Structure formats: C-alpha cells, structure tokens
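Subject: Interface between my chains keeps coming out wrong

I've been trying for a while to get a sensible model of this assembly. When I model each chain on its own everything looks fine, but I need the whole thing in one frame so I can look at the contacts. Pasting all components below, labels as-is. Any help appreciated, I'm running out of ideas.
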Amino acid sequence: MIGYILRRLAQLIPVLFLASIAIWGMIYAVPGGPIGMMVGENATPEQVAAVRAQLGLDRPIYVQYLDWLLRALQGDFGQSIHSRRPVMELIAQRLPASFQLAAAATVVSLAVGVPVAILSAMYPNSWIDRSLSAWNALALGVPTFWLGILLILLFAVHLRWLPSASAHIPFWDNPVGALRNLALPAVTLGVYVSGIFARFLRASLVSELRSDYVRTARAKGLPERQILTVHVLRNALLPFITIVGLSLTNFIGGAVVTEAVFTYPGIARLLINAISQRDYPLIQGCIVVILVLYVLVNLVVDVLYAYADPRIEYN
Amino acid sequence: MSRKAPRRSLLALRALLRDRGALVSLGFLSILVAMAAGAGLLPIEPMRQNILHALEAPSASNWFGTDELGRDILARVIYGARTSLQTAGGAVAIAACIGIPMGLIAGYYGGWRDAVLMRMVDVLLALPGILFAMAIIAVLGRSQMAALVAVGITGIPNFARITRAQVLSLRSRDFVTAVEAFGASSQYAMFRTVLPNAWSPILVQAIVLASLAILLEAALAFLGIGVPPPTPSWGEMLRTGKNYLHEAPHYAILPGVALTLTILAFDTLGRALARVLEDRHDSGAGLAAAKEEGGR
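Reply #2:
Try treating it as a single job with all components included. I did that and got this:
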C-alpha cells in the first residue's frame, strides 16, 4: 500500500513540475514583465535597476526559478503587492472559510444526490426517474452564479430569512450563525455537484441491479429495499468514490463563482481580487495552494478507492 | 466515399430532427444565432442611455425593462448573445485547431510524441478550467480576446483526448493499413484517412464544449474579469443586476434565463447527436468518451 502511494506521488512530480514552471513563468509573460508590474510605467532607470537587483532578476533565469521553487516549497510566495503582507498569511486566513463551505456543500450534494440516484434506479424509466433526471439536467445546466442570485432573491430579498452576503463564522463558535451564513452558498454549490453525483450513481446502481447476485438475492425472496441498501449500494459506491474525485474540478470551479455571488471570504475570492488588482505574488500563491489541495484530494480519493476495493492491485 | 458521405450525414440529421429535445434546441439556437447575427438590423440600441428611465420594470416599450443607466435590457441580451456566441465559437475553434492535431499525432505515432503531448494535456487538466482561464487573463489582461483564448485553451484537452482515443481505435484498421501499404505519407494517412472517420465524437465534443465555453465566458464576466464593459455580456449583466435585486429583480433574472436556455440547448443537442451517431456508427466507445469529457 505504501509503495502504491509513493508511486502515485512520483507520477505527480512531472505534472507538478511543469505546472510550477507555468505558474512561475506567468509573471514573465505579463506585458512589462515582473519589473513593470512592481515599479509602474513612470519609474526612473535607477528605480528599475534597484528593483531588478532587489528581486534578483539580474541572476540567470534557472537560478531565479529554483530560488522561487525552493521558497514556494517552504510556503513562501513573497509579499502581496497590494497589501504588503506575506502571501501565505493572507491565504491561511481564508482557507478555513473555504474548507467550511466545501464541507457544507458536500453534505448538501450527498443529501440531495444519493436519494435522487437511488429513487431513479429503483424505478427506472418511470415518471419518477424521468422527473428526477430532468431535475439533474437542471441542476447541471443552470449556471451556479445565476442559481445563487435566484436563491438570494427568494430567501434574502423576498422572505428575508437569510443574509444575502455570507460572512465566515466558524461552525464550532456559533453553529446557528454559521449555518445561516452557509445555507445559501452551500445549497448553490451543493445542488450543482449533486447533479453530477446523482447522474453517475444512478448509472452505477442500474448496472449493479442487473448483476447475478441481485438475481440470487431476489430469488431468495429478499425485499427490494434490503437488496438495494445492503447489497447494491455498497458495490455501486465504489466507482462513485472516483466520481467524487473527478468532480473536484467542477467543485472548485463552482466554489469560485459561489464565493463571488455571496461575497464569501474564501480563497477563491482572494484570487479574484488579486487578479483584478494584478497582484501577481498573491495570484501565484493562490493558484499553487488550490492546485496542491486539488492534487492531494485526488490522491486521497485514489488511495481510498484502492483501499476500498480489494480487487485493485497496487502493483 | 465522397458521394456517400453527404447522404450519411443527411440520414443522421433526419434522425436528429426526430428527437424532440434536439428539435426544440436546434430551433432555439437557430433563432438565437439569427438574432445575434442580425442584431444590427433590429430596431434596438444596446448602448443608448436614458438615466430618467433607469431600472424600470418590463413594459410595452422595454420588454425586458431597463438597466441602471436606462439602457434597454432586451437589446443588451440580444447583443450579449453575439458576445457569447462569438467567444464560444472562437474558443471551440482554438481548442479544435490545437487539440485535434495533438490527439492525431499522439495517437498515430505513439511513443515519445504521445508521452510528451499527453503530459502537456495532463498539465492542462491538472488545473480546474476556470482557474486556468483566470491565470491566462491575469497575464493577458482583461479583453474579449483574452477571454476567448483562455476559454479556448481550457478546451484543448477535451479535443486532444477524444481524437487520440479515436485514432488509437482506427489506427490498426485494415483501411488505414491499406493506405499505408500503398505508400501514402503519414500526413495523408492521418488527415485524409483517419481523421474523416473520426469526426463524429469530435463533432459531439465541439457542441458540448460550446455549452461549456458559454458558461465559462459568462462566469468570467460575472467575476468581473471577462469581456470588459460596455460590451454587452450576459455574465456582466448578471454581475451588475445582482446589485439591484431590491429595485429591479428582472435585471438579474432575464439575462440568466437567456444564458441557461442557451447552455441547456447546446447540451441537449450534443447529447442527442451522440445518441443518433452512436446508433449509426460503430464508434460508440468514442462517443461515450466524448460525453464523459463533456461532463468534465
């Protein structure tokens, strides 16, 4: 098992290496280059030379990259141009909010997606199945940011039950306040992801329901509900673990716009603001952190899958 | 072959039109494209401001109401369709022009070319599409061209992987071997023999990708880093409309309806086309993969 994890980690190295070059090289591709963005258009040649020396831009290009990489590996992405504070500190402040939103949205997506999939698979091609698949198409087709706006209109503007802008309140400090603030963004993001979950879990369940062991269980006279919950669901959840991993990209994409809709103080909004302010060290830091989280979760999903399914060989 | 091809596509089109969802989607998209293309001929002015009539509800003179500067929202939705379709079309073209040759070369030659090209695709896939697009806009600055390029680059892996999968399944077929045995160059075998037989999942991919491109373009505009104002864009309208939810809820609702219907129409059309072509060709595996890729 450890060997498998190490091999998976080793496979990540070339991808992360190329991605790190791309992220580092980003500021060199900006019109005006890294100096232009630091000193502005009206800088004197002396100022330019001073910044050049200060940033170490007079060194060979590979030394500059290795220096950046070594510091990045230690979590040092330099200072934000805009706020003059260490990039990692700004990111660390936002991460708990993003994790809390991700956890809440996952709960919503499973709470909606799994029952929808089970009901659809239990009554294939019935009106229940058709209406639930229409619901799924809608969950996937309606843009996350528009759904968020509609929810704000209903629950914040008309009914006045929930706030239209969500603050980050740690769940353990004030569960009610946290849930009030999390409800709309978590439903917005969760409904979208539930559409993906339900679509794949239904397919997985339907194919499992055709297996021989299900026929045996039926022949034994087991009630349909028991067959589904005890036998089929367990097997169908295996490929589902992979889907959870694959839908991470959608999850992150959805989280970026969801944070923007609800002005939620997560890492995605930090990144959007950094892009608007052309704060490149902060942009690089945010992208690296999100990329590393994404890759790590993917790895955990792979390992979980290998662990959960004894048929998968580690070699 | 050349005489048979149009008949086959005609049959596919006929089967497609028998699908109710595809028919409705095709009808909607045709009207949308016609309005976007002929927007200049319509008696509408998306840029004319009239502050005295700002944020008015839908009425006989302004069917979709007016925005915060008193501009006609319907006119801006129609011109917004133009922005959306142009960006999506350009993005799909960029993705196809780079992704298809990448997949062809990787699948046809295999070996180190395959390894290098597919690692590049892995890097593109390593970052969620929207983040990649945001990084590209961070470098290029905010413009319609930057949005188009950013959305296009995120679509490259889809085309590269679908084409590669198709080429791998066609590579060892007798008709390809025969063409090679006659002494055809690899370019000829790739572009004239393999590619024409691999088009159906690629076409499905293009349509599914168009819906993703429209969504991504709108998301970037909504985040305030897409097509810059005053160019009308659905995402930008939703972004501004969100600030006037109390005064003018229609402002944030109607452009969203147009956006959602367009995305659903492209998606429905892509899926229906995949079903039709699956019935007609033996390339079901490639089409299934195309749909999976589309769901990315």
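Reply #3:
Confirming on my end. Chain A has two domains: 2-73, 88-308.
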